[in-house]
């Protein structure tokens, strides 16, 4: 089951962070059709957020055709997102994790690492657009 996390400094609305995390988990194969999402009460207890925020996120996911609520049972994943090769994902996740550990060991903090990542990401995809 997915465990949601919030980044209060991201500037992204809380419900969108929940939606994005479900999308990411689907893309990475961490969630699959048939998997159950935490109940709104569980998410509220874990994150100390308004229940309507969770319900809004789940409604967005339902409108997108990714989940379906089953009264009395919970909210379940009903569709997958197209993903890439799981072996490639695993390889690059490992490489990224190693890189992050190296950056932390070099004394870089989360803001420094994020700035480097975002700059590299923009540069890489700007090259592809040219």
Jot down its keywords.
130 residues; mainly alpha; Arc Repressor Mutant, subunit A; 2 domains; 3 strands; 58% helix
Can you describe what's shown?
The chain has 130 residues and is mainly α. The protein has two domains: 14-77, Arc Repressor Mutant, subunit A; 86-129. The chain is built from five helices and three strands. The chain has helices spanning 14-27, 40-47, 51-63, 86-105, 110-129, and strands at 36-37, 67-70, 74-77. A hairpin with a 3-residue loop joins strand 2 and strand 3. The radius of gyration is 17 Å and the shape is globular. The model has no long low-confidence stretch (mean pLDDT 92).
The CATH architecture of the largest domain would be Orthogonal Bundle
In angstroms, what is the radius of gyration?
17 Å
- In the CATH scheme, the class of the largest domain would be Mainly Alpha
Q: Termini separation (Å)?
A: 40 Å
Mean pLDDT: 92
What is the name of the CATH superfamily of the largest domain?
Winged helix-like DNA-binding domain superfamily/Winged helix DNA-binding domain
| Strand order in the largest sheet | 1-3-2
Shape: globular
Instruction: Give the H and E element order.
Output: HEHHEEHH
